[in-house]
Amino acid sequence: MLVMACGLARAETTGAVGPSPPPDFRAQFKDSLVEMPDTGELSTKGTIYVPTYSRVYGAGSGTSKQISLSTTLRIDNTSSTKPLVIERIEYFETSGKLVQSYLKEPLALRPFGTIEIVIPAEDDRGGVAANFIVDWAAAGPMAEPLVEAVMIGSQDNTSYSFVSPGRPIRHIGRSAWPQLRFRF
Length: 184
Hints:
Blueprint: H1 2-14, H2 25-28, E1 33-34, E2 44-51, E3 55-60, E4 63-68, E5 70-76, E6 84-92, E7 98-101, E8 107-109, E9 114-119, E10 131-138, E11 146-155, E12 158-165, E13 167-168
């Protein structure tokens, strides 16, 4: 009931009902986007995991206080000649449940192009330890993109910021299935 009452009060003051959808990040970075290459030529693929933090604990006057952080996910094409295709950008909460998917269809970043997604400090859907997954592809050999998150927040007269680099997801270890090798 309380949620419904708050939604109605918001609708009366702003004309909106329910939470407003996040702005489309692509509009701000339209100059970084290019036409999609032929999907049949996308032979190089990768997945990057980026840990983020929506809040951390700070110390103030001998007590621990939570500091809310805004998060900016940044994706850079590090190639000077090839477009980078972003196939998936998804935001997961602390327990691993999907919070939001940012792409309905892949997009291509021009060489040295950049896009960003901002999660405001007030958005606590990700919980304490959220993360992003970014799937990318390219036509032929290419340098891995730079994907990182920047978190910023403040408490009293002190500001905090730090960077969380993305890590490529690579499968390690041996398969439980026997691998047959033939020599000719």
